[in-house]
């Protein structure tokens, strides 16, 4: 089983269905990555902030050693954390992350949030999170433009084949396109029926920028976090509309939620530790929803964002 691909604006092919590494436990990460490759996953979406890049790399290299895939078969994504936005910090941290993965290059390297924070040396704390060495949220001085130009230099140096951004809104995307020497290949956003962001998706489509959806299952991803919004929002898996569509097609609610995104041209990066669910998630492109079903699911939009720093008690109103 394999995923269809999306052709990026630089000519590279990106699998449309990948595996997201957010909240994957370090103890099981290598095995989960290995098993996902065995099932057929070829895109893995990681980040400095997830704290499991070494373990993910172990899973990748075990799979390569066992002949399940080659490096060129894989599409490895990682992200630049907020505390490394200063231009002179970008290449060194990218090289550290490559070393953690055991790779020579990333297929895609992404600015994680449009937020600059004070630098924290990896020898002091890694990953640093949202606070500095004094446990305070301290703004950095880097501009988004200077950080992006440092990202472009990574392409020139062969450290990544593509660059992109995450958690940018329309105004920031329009501004970025004014100064970018290398256009962003992708934008990664929170995207589910409670947060459709259709205007932003349409902007990226018009500009030839691929969109990757994270948290495709909405509140499901946030139930195990200390967040009232995640706990108090009805699960999409249990929503009558999603259940009705799933029953009609003989699919799971998760497959319907993923297909709603992929059928509209987005990439998705779900995760699971279950082999059966890994296969089901990867198989979401084998059926089509009706146009009315797509509209009905899109109509569930509440503009409800879960992955907002403010929801974690972090005073950074980047989506205000």
Description:
The strands form two sheets. This protein has an eight-stranded parallel sheet. Strands 1-2 form a two-stranded antiparallel ribbon. The mean pLDDT is 96. It has a domain at 12-184: NADP-dependent oxidoreductase domain (TIM Barrel, Alpha-Beta Barrel), CATH 3.20.20. Helix 3 links the parallel strand 5 and strand 6 (108-111). 36% of the residues lie in helices and 12% in strands. Helix 8 (240-249) crosses helix 9. The chain is α/β, with parallel strands linked by helices and 320 residues long. The protein has helices spanning 26-39, 53-65, 87-101, 144-156, 170-179, 198-207, 228-232, 240-249, 253-262, 275-282, 291-298, and strands spanning 5-7, 13-15, 19-20, 43-45, 75-80, 108-111, 163-166, 186-190, 210-214, 267-268. It contains eleven helices and ten strands. Belongs to the aldo/keto reductase family. Pathway: Carbohydrate metabolism; D-xylose degradation. InterPro entries: AKR (IPR020471), AKR2D (IPR044487), Aldo/ket_reductase_CS (IPR018170), NAD(P)_OxRdtase_dom_sf (IPR036812), NADP_OxRdtase_dom (IPR023210). It is an enzyme of class 1 (oxidoreductase). Keywords: Carbohydrate metabolism, NAD, Oxidoreductase, Xylose metabolism.
Radius of gyration: 19 Å
Ranges where pLDDT stays below 50 over 5 or more residues in a row are: none
Shape: globular
Strand content: 5-15%
What gap, in angstroms, lies between the N and C termini? Answer: 41 Å
Helix content: 25-40%
Could you tell me the number of beta strands?
10
CATH homologous superfamily designation of the domain at 12-184: NADP-dependent oxidoreductase domain
* Widest β-sheet, arrangement of strands: 3-4-5-6-7-8-9-10
> Which H/E pattern describes the elements?
EEEHEHEHEHEHEHEHHHEHH
Assembly category: single chain
Give me the number of helical elements. Answer: 11
**Which CATH class of the domain at 12-184 applies here?**
Alpha Beta
Secondary-structure-derived class: alpha/beta
Largest sheet: 8 strands, parallel
Mean pLDDT: 96
The assigned CATH architecture of the domain at 12-184 is: Alpha-Beta Barrel
What is the fold-level CATH name, i.e. the topology of the domain at 12-184? TIM Barrel
